[in-house]
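Milestone M4 deliverable, item 7.
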Amino acid sequence: MNLATGVKEARLNVPDPNQDNTSSGLTIIDDFAIVGHEPEPEMDFTDHDHESSLQHPLRPPPDTTSESTSFFAAVSEIEQRGPQNTDELIPALTDLEDLSHSYHWGLTLAQDESMVHKLFQFLLPSDLSLEVRSLAALVLGTAIRNNPAALDAALSHYYTDEWPEGPLEAVLMALLHEQAPVLLNRMMFLLSSLCQDSRQLHRFLDAGGIDLLIALYDAGSAGSEDQNKLRRKVTHFVIDNLVESSQGHESSLPGSDIDTDWTMIQLRHLKDRPSTIV
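Output delivered:
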């Protein structure tokens, strides 16, 4: 400002050849000077999580003792009853599924070797009710989903002299022999959660996983809501685990109308050229 006239005057930032001007951060905009201004980087708010992740968000750590009481009561109920009186297992499994959305309780469950073995045994073909088996799959999948510590803990109970096979084998057995869409959907959710571990994904592929996914996708072709849901889960499994992001699959994602061609093309391509699997 010119103190004599009271009028604002813009100072032109003309370099002085006798001075070092490389550090000058002065930019003249109208009658305002902004020093050292740089545009802020754009933020990417794109949500790349698929529907199963959105339906199973992690809750914050527990802040009351009520959750602890509910958790250990449910664990005790399942350990005492075993596979008998299956209807009485349903409330306990439901409580565990709800609590396992928490990082803390998901990890606590996965660290309990006895419970992990029991729940995976529930998945195997048996006289257990469909609801109990599907709930067991949901509990396990929820506990380890987006919870790396819980996933590592659950897997640590396997591949030993006593338990030479892992949980993946139980899931594959169920997927190969079951036909009920509701159970297949829960098993696909659990499979996707397990395959967040790259070793489990490779075990799945080595066991003929691509052929299994093709068969499951075909099994969902009749058009009921559960069958459509099964196809969507297969599609999301392909996207999350088998297809490179550089392929631009986001624009090809099936919406409410399932894009049969896209998923089957991807699966058959991966079957013919397994080296392209990420």
